[in-house]
Amino acid sequence: MEDNSKLRREQAKDELRKGKKIDTSLYEKDLKGLVEELSIYQIELEHQNQELYKSHEEIQQSKDRYLDLFDNAPISYLIVDSNGIIKDINQTACLLFESSKNKLVKKKITNIIHRDFQDVYYIYFRSLIKQKYNQTCDIKLQKANNTFFYARIQGIRQTSLATKEPEFRLAIIDITIQKEMELNLLIAKEKAQEHDKLKSAFLANMSHEIRTPMNGILGFAELLKEGHLTDKQQLDYINIIEKSGTRMLNIINDIVDISKIEAGLMKLDIKESNINEQIEYIYTFFKPEVEAKEMKLSFKNTLPAKEAIIKTDSEKVYAILTNLVKNAIKYTEKGSIEFGYEIVETQGRASLQFYVKDTGIGIPADRQSAIFERFVQADVSDRMARQGAGLGLAITKSYVEMLGGKIWVESQEGVGSTFHFTLPYNAEPVTETINQQLATSGKIDTIRNLKILIAEDDEISEKLVEIAVKILSREIVKVRTGVEAVLACIENPDIDLILMDIRMPEMGGFDATRQIREFNKEVVIIAQTAYGQSDEREKAIAAGCNDYIAKPIKKEELLALMQKYFKK
Ligand code: ADP
Question: How do residues 457-479 score in pLDDT, each as one tens digit?
């Protein structure tokens, strides 16, 4: 067609040159054919255009979908090349690292791995290069704010579609919480195992510590029974029995105290307390014992009496000081023991810093913190320990901390030890000193014709109390239960004093007291208990008792208490 029209155009030119007229109808026909052909082309082109647009749309959609899947996957994801360079990272991972794509891409992955885990990662990466299967490793990774978190990496080697080079696709899971839990569990397990070991050692030691004084008590009681003994021998044996009993009581008290501390039942009784008086009392109490060992005991009170009053639990302070001084005596054979306190200021707060200094055997440096641990020094292999349950310092430390202070030791083997502890200095100076100590002079100035009811279920305890109060009594009534005590009071309205045991069958001493108080408000009731709880006195008073005495009952103490109520 095109050739024809070309030919026609040449012919037309010729004819025009020769001055002939041209037949245009033929051209019109050609033109029409061309227009038709053009429109077919156009339709074809439009169709092709539409197809192209459609596939472009589809490609875009699939790209968006890929990006969405990658970026917003529920797992952090990054891709590194064989040189460890981060090639891509998804949004979830950026959130995890608290960073952005820009900052992380092109960075070396080792730059965000904790230095302690570089080797672990290196080995892992080499294994990924070698083997084409899923592999995991746990490492610590760094966030943009320089904090670290534990991560589990699950990775695989693949070939990049774009570069045909190998690439490593790593999924990252934050396992910090899991790791912390694992760590806590491990620590708890180790602690439990250590505790278990120490408890066994403690029990073995305790068994030894209880059996030893028992041996003394039962053995010498047996010897006493045999007779043919001189007065001196008898007195010696009785002294041994008494000493063994005291030792046993100390152990029992320690066990009760540590159990109470462990169970969180140890309470504080905060009152104003004169520190100088406590120091002087302890000095007077221990002086004979120290001098018997041919050593010197001295004390130093820094504050004047008026300013030496603080709000604290004086019983606990007394126990702390007593324990430290006792240990100083126990572990020193020659030289001197000095104790006291001074006022110090730390971080703007005043506190009293106490010290107990001895010239004894000292404590090796590696044992200086262990001695404060409960059960630790009960280790039977402890060659430094002398007689004792090994609980004293653990109890002492707990008391100091309960009172808001700290305790530590400075010691050198063969030279001596100085124990320090602090207490908050928290009281205003007062003008009057408070001294409400009960006089326990031992001088008996009491009405001697009392009618006494002893309510006690234990025969030996009953006998002991009976012997102690006999000289002040005209008549002694004895009962074994709370119910019997109430009945005895109804039948004997002239009873002056009831020594009421707290734990008895049928009805306890507190209940019996409450019932007696319903009809008799005058009779003096003194509760006696072996529980050793610090709130026992309050409980006794609340039940209606006048006073309270702790077992084992000391004759002197009981008589002093009776003197308080029946003074002539
Ligand atoms: P214990 O009642 O058995 O003496 P403590 O808890 O009071 O137990 O003391 C623990 C350990 O600390 C003792 O076994 C002893 O080894 C050591 N220790 C305590 N005080 C002194 C001291 N003043 N000098 C030397 N060692 C001491």
Answer: 888 888 888 888 888 889 999 99
Tokens 């540590």 map to which residue?
258
Q: What are the pLDDT digits (tens) for 56-80?
A: 999 999 999 989 999 999 999 999 9
Q: How far is the CA of 324 from the centre of ligand 1 (A)?
A: 9
Domain 73-174 = CATH 3.30.450.20: yes
CA distances from 123 to 105, 159, 251, 278, 400 (A): 23, 21, 58, 67, 52
Instruction: Identify each DSSP E strand in 19-175 by its residue range.
Output: 76-81, 86-89, 135-142, 148-159, 166-174
Ligand 1 pocket, residue 155 CB under 6 Å: no
**Angle (CA) 142 148 149, round 5°:** 105
The number of C-alpha atoms within 13 Å of 508 and in the hemisphere containing its C-beta is 10
Pocket test residue of 363, 367, 383, 407 for ligand 1, highest count of atoms within 8 A of CB:
363
Ligand 1 pocket test, pick from 246, 355, 371 with the greatest ligand atom count within 8 Å of Cβ, gives 371
Nearest CA to ligand 1 atom 14: 385
Instruction: Select from 1.10.287.130, 3.30.420.40, 3.40.630.30, 1.10.260.40 the CATH code of 180-263.
Output: 1.10.287.130
Q: Which of 261, 268, 267, 258 is nearest to 424 (CA)?
A: 268
**Per-residue tokens: 471:** 């000289």
- Work out the average pLDDT over 475-491: 94
